[in-house]
User: Which sequence fits this backbone?
């Protein structure tokens, strides 16, 4: 009898231990921060841009470079690319003004330069950011990085143009606007470079020169698109007004 009771007690202890392990595992999975989120997800709202630093590109960088050039601190071409020379000039300016010397054009540095903080203050949702990266990948996966940013810039130029829908989704899914919607390329995995290309386009870099159209002359015989004034060629695409 005692031996039988001991076996039952032992089974009960094992069951209780297993329940404790299961409860602990549930707690960890339920309440710990997610560690498997995609490296390309962003916050629900992106402030575009937050600041300019080495690697940044766009109109705000051009303004910074021009201000520094006017002060005699930046001596090469104003190109909108925040490289080593721009960072060096920003550091020199920060030392002159008694600011924290980090080479980053944050709000205090921009204010001292006489520039508004943040440049383009529009907000871009995570879904728009992902959609822009997706259409860039679908339309320009095999193009150079500059060509990918240019395609993203065309999409954004259309959003701002009165002849097109005023939302990113409206532009991307406008009937007949992009071949990638019709041939299914829009559903393919997004190339890694296209996430950064989308961000650079959102930050104001427009390699297309303000284009609202582009096409591959080797793949289209459409007379109308071929009649559009060409701004420039980047890779396989002609960018047009």
Assistant:
């Amino acid at each position: 009898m005692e031996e039988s009771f001991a076996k039952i007690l032992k089974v009960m202890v094992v069951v209780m231990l297993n329940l404790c392990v299961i409860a602990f595992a549930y707690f960890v999975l339920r309440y710990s921060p997610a560690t498997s989120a995609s490296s390309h997800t962003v916050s629900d709202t992106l402030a575009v841009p937050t600041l300019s630093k080495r690697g940044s590109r766009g109109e705000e960088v051009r303004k910074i470079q021009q201000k520094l050039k006017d002060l005699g601190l930046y001596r090469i071409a104003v190109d909108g690319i925040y490289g080593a020379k721009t960072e060096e000039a920003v550091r020199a300016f920060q030392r002159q003004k008694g600011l924290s010397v980090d080479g980053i054009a944050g709000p205090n540095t921009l204010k001292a330069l006489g520039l508004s903080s943040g440049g383009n203050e529009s907000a871009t949702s995570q879904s728009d950011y992902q959609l822009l990266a997706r259409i860039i990948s679908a339309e320009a996966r095999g193009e150079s990085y500059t060509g990918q940013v240019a395609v993203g810039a065309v999409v954004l130029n259309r959003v701002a143009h009165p002849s097109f829908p005023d939302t990113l989704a409206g532009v991307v899914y406008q009937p007949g606007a992009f071949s990638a919607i019709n041939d299914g390329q829009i559903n393919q995995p997004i190339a890694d470079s296209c996430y950064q290309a989308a961000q650079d386009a959102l930050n104001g870099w427009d390699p297309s020169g303000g284009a609202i159209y582009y096409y591959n002359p080797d793949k289209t015989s459409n007379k109308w698109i071929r009649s559009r004034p060409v701004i420039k060629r980047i890779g396989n695409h002609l960018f047009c007004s």
